[in-house]
Amino acid sequence: MGSVKAENLRMLRKLIVIAVMMFGFGYLLIPVYKHICEVLGINMLTQKDGTVALDPKNTQVDNSRLVTVELDSNAHGPWRFRATQRSIQVHPGELATVVYEVVNTQPRTVNAQAIPSYAPNSVTPYFKKVECFCFKQQTMKANEARQMPVVFFIDPALPKDVKTITLSYTFFEIAGLASN
Question: Is the pTM of this model over 0.70?
Answer without folding.
Answer: no
